[in-house]
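Protocol step 4 of 5: obtain the predicted structure for the target chain.
Materials: sequence only (see below). No template structures provided, no constraints applied. The aim of this step is simply to have a reference model before the mutagenesis design in step 5. Sequence pasted as it appears in the construct record:
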Amino acid sequence: MAGYLVSDNRKVTTHRFIEMKQRGEKISMLTAYDYTTAGIVDGAGIDGILIGDSASNVMAGNGTTLPITIEQMIYHAKSVVRGVNRALVVCDMPFGSYQVDRKEGVKNAIKIMKESGCDALKLEGGLEIIDTIKGILDAGIPVMGHLGLTPQSINKFGTYAVRAKEDAEAEKLISDAKLLSETGCFSVVLEKVPSALATRVSSEISVPTIGIGAGNGTDGQILVVDDMLGMTKGFSPRFLRRYADLNTVMTDAIGNYITDVKNSDFPNENESY
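Step 4 output (structure tokens):
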């Protein structure tokens, strides 16, 4: 079934991402980590769903993305894939699964694809991991790149501040983006970089850019679904727009349930057998 904002219910593919950039159509993406949420997001008409390693934070309560394992990512990805009919489904390769060498990276990429059923994988980094990306592409697996703030490198950066504000880092990001595009990545995520830089990169590479905290000049946008729905509290970066306040809605609903149970108002006669 097509989403309420989308009349085209054809399966979204990596090729369609590139076509959307070519015709100037913005690409919408959100994360999802479970079957129920994925079905709702997909049914609304989203173009792409990312099973982010942010599941480490959102689902498991870890302070960083680093602890999540390949097996845990596969579990979340399988759950999401079952709930999706239209959206392109991309899965993050977790920290440690591709940084060691090309052979191990390709092996782990194949494992995730075979066991999860997702459509593509996302890797963080540029020149430093390009040989592994080439190997994964050679294995027939579509790759989404990720530049700028790369959370798997948080211990190296030491901060989640905006990246590439200085000329040298900006030039490297531009070079890496071009390298990823020329190597065969079908899109590139740009996270927490100056909007002018993201706009420039978007105009200089042939594949779509997906921004998060990168301004409106990218070819698409992505947010963590739990953040944009207002389920999470205490996390309010500048780039986050909350489209709902589900934390309050859920808290009120649960509070009403507790009250009804305590007062013996639930279940009533019509809710009993």
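Step 4 remarks: The two ends are 35 Å apart (CA to CA). Residues 39 and 83 are 4 Å apart (CA to CA).
Proceed to step 5.
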